[in-house]
Amino acid sequence: MSHKSTPAGGDLFAIPDHAVLALEGPGAAKFAQAQFMNDVAALAPGHWQWSGWLTPKGRAIALFALLKRDEERLWLLLADAAPAGFVEALGRFVFRSKVRIRIATELRVSGTFSAPAQAHGATFARNGDGFELDFGTATGARTLAVGETPAVADAEALARWNAFDLAHGRPRLDATQAGQWTPQQLSLERLRGYSVSKGCYPGQEIVARTHFLGQAKRGLARLACAAEVAAGSAVMADGRELGRVVCSQAGELLAVLPVERAEAALAVDGAPCEPRPLLDGLAR
Questions:
Q1: What are the record keywords, sorted (predicted)?
Q2: Are 112 and 5 in contact (CB under 8 A)?
């Protein structure tokens, strides 16, 4: 995307761990509705939502932003997951659906810490030779851009971007965490990231049962830790395992812990950790 269309206040920097997947064809929206955990049918063209793809046991394989350009063109902004493997796995369910799934290798994802020129909330907008999304909150502006022109690499800005996501409860799933957690365990209701009423999709029965029976006993917690820790590490309390780390960034982490738990000193790999509040504002 040209810098001429960059929102005022900051240059675009590359977000290389995001890929753009295109679902195209007369059956694109119907296929996405049947496979993904949020309500694509209720999403108006020109809008986007948080969503994901689950195993039959209701565990998140991958999380993404889903953009509905129209009924025959959808984009997935896939974070962390290997796009080729994701496309291959998803393609096994196409059967007779009139949809083509491809990696949009011509498109790049970038970001800036400034307000979008036109996009707002869940509405995305064309900007120059690409599109922009409002990835900010009421207290912190951010724009995510999708276009053909690569942005510059900026490790410091990228780390700040990822830390913002973490603080606001957007979990990131590397290969070790894919297929490990339910939407409720990842507290994805905070992002309005899944539906319990739209009808069948892989894992829907487990997600709906957990919701309606009130059985979500674990959820996402944000912790500040005295050392960098790896995803999958155990969170310990009083010598016993309390939960597991989902992702970490710049001295903070997201972990799945019991929703109701007694106050106790927490540690990961022997490093003390302190609870921090999850911030609001990324729901769409």
A1: Transit peptide
A2: no
Eight-state DSSP code of residue 173? -
Closest of 209, 217, 207, 215 to residue 183, by C-alpha: 207
Residue 238: CATH number of its domain:
2.40.30.110
Cα→Cα distances 207→54, 65, 210, Å: 10, 19, 5
Let me know whether 114 and 52 are in one domain. Answer: yes
Q: Are 36 and 30 in contact (CB under 8 A)?
A: no
DSSP summary character for residue 58: S
pLDDT bucket at 215, cuts 50 / 70 / 90: confident
Pairing type for strands 234-237 and 240-249 reads: antiparallel
The SS3 call for residue 49 is strand
97 domain residue, yes or no: yes
The HSE-up count of residue 237 (CA atoms within 13 Å, CB side) is: 14
* Contact indicator for 91, 31 with CB cutoff of 8 Å: no
Q: Return the pLDDT at 10.
A: 65
> Among residues 222, 244, 227, which one has the least CA distance to residue 235?
244
pTM passes above 0.85 = yes
Q: What is the CATH number of the domain that holds 134?
A: 3.30.1360.120
pLDDT digits over 28-37, tens only?
A: 999 999 999 9
